[in-house]
């Protein structure tokens, strides 16, 4: 079975929240839109019996958040967290100190550790996600 990612962009665009009165309201508004930051790793052996952990990190503050969903299928590990969850946890201070939240530039690192039969492998991926509000 093959599939494709519908949108591999790291830019998340939302309509401005007209009912939001606080930063918490904005995070909840984005959370309930359901957008996710996803990842997958193709391994060279079956990892279904492996212990796998994954978390997202804000490299500026070193705040972390465990991946909300983590799955293992044969040789593939994949997972995600909701953008709203990440905003409320690892980016809260960044957003609170921003003068304008029209466009947010948020660097991230995804850490995935796979342990199987006394072997331990750690993968990282770094990039930047953008959250913007456009009418």
Brief descriptors of the model:
single chain; 135 residues; alpha+beta; Immunoglobulin-like; 5-stranded mixed sheet; 3-stranded antiparallel sheet; 3 helices; 8 strands
Write the layout of secondary structure elements.
Elements: E1 11-14, H1 23-31, E2 36-42, E3 51-58, E4 63-66, E5 69-73, E6 76-82, H2 83-89, H3 92-96, E7 103-116, E8 119-133
Parallel strand pairs: 1-8
Antiparallel strand pairs: 2-6, 3-4, 3-7, 5-6, 7-8
Helix pairs in contact: 1-2
Number of helices: 3
State the helical fraction. 10-25%
H-E string: EHEEEEEHHEE
Overall CATH architecture: Sandwich
Shape: elongated
In spatial order, strands of the major sheet run: 1-8-7-3-4
Number of spatially distinct domains: 1
Count the beta strands.
8
SS class: alpha+beta
Ranges where pLDDT stays below 50 over 5 or more residues in a row are: 1-5
The biggest sheet amounts to: 5 strands, mixed
CATH class: Mainly Beta
* End-to-end Cα distance: 38 Å
What does this structure look like?
The protein is α+β, with helices and mostly antiparallel strands and 135 residues long. Helix content is 16%, strand content 47%. The protein has helices at 23-31, 83-89, 92-96, and strands at residues 11-14, 36-42, 51-58, 63-66, 69-73, 76-82, 103-116, 119-133. The strands form two sheets. Strands 1-8-7-3-4 form a five-stranded mixed beta sheet, with no helix packed on it. It has a three-stranded antiparallel beta sheet with strand order 2-6-5. Strand 7 and strand 8 (119-133) form a beta hairpin. Helix 1 runs antiparallel to helix 2 (83-89). The protein is elongated and about 50 Å long. The model is unreliable at 1-5 (pLDDT under 50).
